[in-house]
Amino acid sequence: MSDNKLIKAIKDKGKNIEAEMSFFDHLEALRWHLIRASIAIVLFTILAFVFYDFVFDTVIMGPMDPQFFTYRMLCKLGDYLNRPGFCIDKIPGKIINTEMAGQFTLQINSALLIGITLGFPYLLFEIWRFVKPALHENERKAASGFVFYASMLFILGILFGYYVVTPESISFLAGYQVSKVIENTFTIDSYLSSVSTLTLATGIVFELPILVYVLSNIGILTAKTMRQGRRYAIVGILVVAAVITPTPDVLTMMVVTIPLFLLYEVGIIVAGMVEKRRLKRERDEMAKA
């Protein structure tokens, strides 16, 4: 009797060791995926550091230039609609550096932000490579376009944030004055923080359909729930639009609100497709049983 208990204990111990080894094997695999993604980000960061004149003068400082693409398009739109108020031909305010190592850390931080932005699609690819072996064949097929769609949505969000949200916010905040006695003078850290936050935040917000897809597959979210919560979502979208576009005009707010609302509607469609696919899979499994 005691021999059987001893054998059973040895077997259980073996199973526990095997499970622990499997867990650590997964951690090791994840570590290497993250290392490869980090190397890609570092390479993009070095590239941005080497070509920093273009990165800083054209990309980072672009929204402060009256000849920026968005401002030129607004001027053309104002001429077409006979609304001269649309045209932005001057960005008031002055940017200064107040720290001894400020410009050096500016170059490093902004190059790193560019590296993270450019390396994000590859990070998604490495995450997909890590998750893929744990999925069933039908789940792999269903999620085969994850990296492509997530990357495209992120890039669209970055472009929308950089060309729409950021210039509108910068032009408004740079010219906003409580009193003429107060002159607008901004530190370069404050400016870089505003540009990067507005741009990257919009890129992340555009990942909403991917989040809906994941939650729908888990069973947490359904198309019916999203339809029922549409009125609350609209209020939330308006709040988000008001926060990321601190401009007083309704038109600018609508320019941000409409794409976010369309993303929510796309999320409903995605949730419906996932739900239909899951129900079909369950029916097929029941038929086989």
TrEMBL record:
Write out the transmembrane intervals.
34-55, 104-125, 146-165, 198-220, 232-248, 254-274
State the UniProt keywords alphabetically: Cell membrane, Membrane, Protein transport, Translocation, Transmembrane, Transmembrane helix, Transport
Pfam families per record:
TatC (PF00902)
In terms of InterPro entries, this protein maps to: TatC (IPR002033)
How is the protein disposed in the membrane? Multi-pass membrane protein
Instruction: Output the superkingdom of the source species.
Output: Bacteria
Task: Enumerate the subcellular locations listed in this protein's record, separating them with semicolons.
Answer: Cell membrane; Membrane
Q: Which family does it belong to?
A: Belongs to the TatC family.
What's its job?
Part of the twin-arginine translocation (Tat) system that transports large folded proteins containing a characteristic twin-arginine motif in their signal peptide across membranes.
Q: How does it assemble?
A: Forms a complex with TatA.
Q: What is this protein called?
A: Sec-independent protein translocase protein TatC
Q: Which organism is it from?
A: Mucilaginibacter defluvii
